[in-house]
Amino acid sequence: MSTPGSLDALVNALTTEELVSLVAGTNVWETAPVERLGIPSIRVTDGPVGARGTRFDGPESINVPCSTSLAATWDPALVRRVGELLGREARAKGARVLLAPTVNLHRTPIGGRNFECMSEDPYLTAEQAVAYVEGVQSEGVACCIKHFVGNDTEFERNTIDSRIDERTLREKYLVPFEAAVTRAKVGSIMTAYNRLNGTFCADHTWLLDDVLRGEWGFDGLVMSDWFGLHSTIDGILAGCDLEMPGPPVHRGARLVAAIEAGEIDVDAVRTCARRVLEFVERWHGFEDGAPGPETTRDDPDDVALVREAGAHGAVLLQNRSDADGAAVLPLASSGLGRVAIIGPNAFHGQVLGGGSAHVNPTSISRPLDALTAFVEAAGGTVTSAPGCHIHKRLPSLSSRLRTPLRGAFFLHPDELDDPSAAPARSLENVSPHAMWNENPADPAVARHEFGARLSTTFTPDVSGPWQLSLATVGAGRLLIDGTVLIDTGDAPVGGSFFGLGTDDVVGTIDLVAGRAYEVVVELRRAGSEVAMSGLLLGGFPPVLVDLMDEAIDAAGNSDVAIVVVGTNHDWESEGWDRTSIELPGRQDELIRRVADASVRTVVVVNAGSPVAMPWIDEVDAVLVCWFPGQEMGNSLVDLLSGAVEPQGRLPVTFPLRMEDTPAFEHHPGRNGAAEYRERRLFGYSWYETVGRPTAFPFGFGLGYAEIELIGASVSSPHEVTVELANRSGRDGVEVVQVYVAAPGEVGGAAQAAPGDDEPASRLVGFARVEIPAGRSVTATVRLDANAYRSWDETAGGWRQSAGPRRLYVGRHAGDRAAELDVLVPEPEA
Ligand code: BGC
What we know:
By secondary structure, the chain is α/β, with parallel strands linked by helices. Helix 4 (76-92) packs across helix 5.
């Protein structure tokens, strides 16, 4: 199908109702078609670690590393290739829009979606986002970059007012969006849930019209975050083109009525509808016709790319040597001896974070399986033990021990009390982690009101006190053999389903192994316009062994212990923040006791954002692998065996304590507002400027090769030349980083005055350089075109600073291996 006639003719042919239909989704993932005029829907999909498609339990997708991991590669060329992969994946799901990348900044390490965002630094985020967008869009799929702007944590995320001064916005939080618009020509942008300085982002004329379209020249589509539009008129006037999801809450009939009442001019709606049509045309909607079926690609080359990217993003933080000078990593390739593989995340391998970023991976390489195969091939033996559990909510009730969950769905919750009521719909195999975007009793009914009864026969395999759990959107009860064990009716809401569902309610009951129990869950959902409901049914067996003792025994009988610790998708997810940076459960104790018992201890941290490491001095090696995507185990083998050189560098500072972090005094905010009082002093700028110690600085990371930075010179204000020598017998990689000092630093001027938020230095350039064994390499680092600009609050515009400036060249923030002075010329008039 091609565009029928010119867009102008098409727009003029639309009735008011059709115009209104175009400015909202028709369902959760698609824009509205106008069949009479041959206008098709266009489908969108999350984003950012895969292309999930329209169902959370739908066909599988290739799962790439999370955004902190991608950022940690400091390798835009690699990120671009990952973007291309994601573009292919989106098309396999019949989608022409990937709801990604997420480019909010890490303002505090406990932000629930930090794993989905790239970095604390705007320049690194911008460079990686541009590469990501260019990669995806080269496959004919638009990116929808998100969340514009100030959605930096999950606290009261649907209403919070992020109060950010203009200079901080311009120089920090807006930078990645600006780069994606002006350089990568990103196709679409998603407004954030929050308010910005008093106004909801979806209604924000200054943000959407003045800055985005006016100053940056954006000519793509603006859509709301899901249920993030709060107005019928203001959003249209500000330029939020599309209310998502559909069917609409604020537009649709309400917008038609507002037009008829003369409250809004139909031309304003036409402007947004026209942009929707331009978008459908630009992103191949008319060629494709209706969105196609959703399929799974399992391309081995793409899976190999996930393995490579997962390995390249991992950051080696520590690698001690023994008395003979031999480093603990890489592990020997033969005669490995006895290896203990310990830790909760060795067993389940957390490949991705939670929330809308979830996809169903095509396969998962578990650390335990991949490491065991490697150790055994290298002549070693393996013992394994989880050591402790870290679940925040219980795992799903095991399908091994129960019959399929049968579902009976009724259009009215009261029908659950009527034994003669016939269900409107029955399903034979409902997931114990069920999430419905449509009414499960009848998907054609827009209103979310229903009753559900789910039943299964559960036969435990061990006797003792079992824990069962339930979390629901709506009121739920769990009955076992007819007796109520759990009632979520009065449970606090917020801990599940993006903050819409209840916390887990846990009930404990003594069960007998081999006996069959009838488990029934009832769910009553009162009417709601929010198209989301679901339930989580969990179960956890009695713990009959002391997991900690078992792990310490394994460590004591090993030559090396590999301890895989971290978080999971319950801790790092959408809808809530973490409450601390400590590893959940007894993991800190586990590491300490393993380190005490074993000869050598290697810790692998499997988390999407920073964790505290109070045991750092007691272990030999530490590797942070983030949420590395579905090839997790294989990527780890590549790194620990030395087949791949560790080359990731931290895209975020690892703090020693929460109390040291920049937003500690101001987060999460109060009375509905988050005051960004630290202004521009967050991330490394904070630690450096106020002189706080860190556990590991931004930009830090080790390799196995020994690389020396032997010289640096300035070739122009936007180019630095560096000489690096590889003093080892291994090929190596270095990430050279260039920071510009605050104005006034040249000539020995003092630090910024107390209370001033001028960062002591700021990243303005980096280059990933490969240096063959025993060789020297000269590399060029090109600096940010905006390296010397600053926002002039008085004049309300950018100022290009001219005159002498100082550059620091090194391997992380604060490393001043070389200090260079540069004379920045007056900008051309
Ligand atoms: C998230 C978005 C996501 C959307 C659709 C929202 O809850 O904030 O990032 O794209 O849901 O799943």
